[in-house]
Amino acid sequence: MNRRQFVKRAVGGSAALLAAQAVASNSSGLRDFDSYVSSKKSGWAVEAPDVLTPLENVTNYNNFYEFGMDKSDPAQYASAMTLDPWSIRVSSDGGKTVDVQFEDLLRAMDLEERIYRLRCVEAWSMVIPWLGFPLADLIRWLDPQENYRFVHFQTRYTRSEMRGTRSFSSVIDWPYQEALRMDEAMNTLSFIAVGLYGKSLPAQNGAPLRLVVPWKYGFKSIKSIASIHFTNRQPETSWQAIAPHEYGFYANVNPEVDHPRWSQRYERRLPSSLFNPNRIPTQMFNGYGEYVADLYKNLNLRRYY
Amino acid sequence: MLSFVGLALATVQNQLGPDPVKQLALLTGNRGFQFLLLSLLISPLAQLLAAPYLIQWRRPAGLWAFYFLSLHLLVFAQGYIGWSWVILIEELIERPYISVGALAWVLLVPLALTSTRAARLKLGASWAILHRLVYVVAVLGCLHLIWQVRSDWINAGVYTLICVLIAGSRYRNALRF
Ligand code: HEM
Q1: From its phi and psi, is residue B82 left (phi > 0), alpha (psi between -120 and 50) or beta?
Q2: CATH code, A164
């Protein structure tokens, strides 16, 4: 080995070492879940032509306006959010209010892995291996007593920890809110994720727990849930409040109904590049029609977008 | 110079994250608009500072604006609509922010073409009138941004404010045809 080769290797070696350390310190805050049902066993493995979106993209390209408008802001600033302890306020129109500790909830649930497509209303999409449990299991465990028609979620709102919420030019009325009809919530697809790629959720992906409803545009899949309310009145959701003609309550992925800003007929499957934008046609209900189409058989999807 | 920017864009390719198409659209749109405003600011600045030599920068600023906005259009054609005429027409009809953006770019074309010294001499007085179109382009650019506002108006707000300020400082000239 001559000197130049040696130097090259030494540099390469230390770069590899640095990279290894970076990974270790990145993941040090994340917990491993040692026992869960794998996606192969849960029945939600990745199916061709879908390909998993690399972890690096899933965790560095996020919309989480509480932490800023840029896609890279959440990865940079979401670590300011206090995740432990985390409690969720659970209430209903008629019943009492209780605070549920995230740890207690987690202990009560059986974890499984599910690989879902995520379609953002901005016309990009990813394929993500989530870790979590069906929302239906959580609702049964929370036991709302009566048959309410809707379930309403709110994201944590802590001004001091969320720089995006302090922006004077934002018109979002915090906290961020989303809601599902109860039959949508009880659908087998509706999922609460507490992790991805085998580890707990990074803050920017909505730690410690978030909703995942893969047949709806991404903004329905509310992050960092701080409260759950069962109600009979249809709740107003955040984007609906800002622009009702652009964002509906349902927000089902639908290539036939255009958004005034983005054609919904195609999507860029990430990672994409300039020379190969990876544009693919968008599927009705993001390809999950067999599970959810029945929910809407009496609904005019053009009117109720 | 062209190749320099092309290279710069190519190198940032890998650093633009998983959705470079969008990042490039934002980058080229913003740079283009910034150069456009710069070109508009040069005349009032030259007057204000009594520094006529600043005027020599007006033409390059305008051309850089045209250059970046043409890249903006290319990124849109390649990344957003995949060179499909059908989709282009649909976008122009259905999305007013796209149609005003496109109109703004179209209006810039004759300005770029007549930016040479020879064209300027040939056109004489009509050159100055023609080049006032740049104010129309700026207004359309603002509309293009205002129509894009979703939950945060800061970007559109700042550009529009600067346009209003420039227009305010120039309105007397505008009356002098
Ligand atoms: C040639 C026709 C044009 C088309 C098709 C077009 C299209 C677009 C699109 C699709 C976006 C949104 C990118 C996204 O959020 O996904 C955008 C952003 C932008 N455009 Fe254009 N545009 C055009 C002309 C112009 C012109 C003439 C200007 C400036 C005078 C301009 C300035 C901008 C700026 C500054 C942004 C970024 C806004 C932001 O930062 O949020 N565009 N354009």
Answers
A1: left
A2: 3.90.420.10
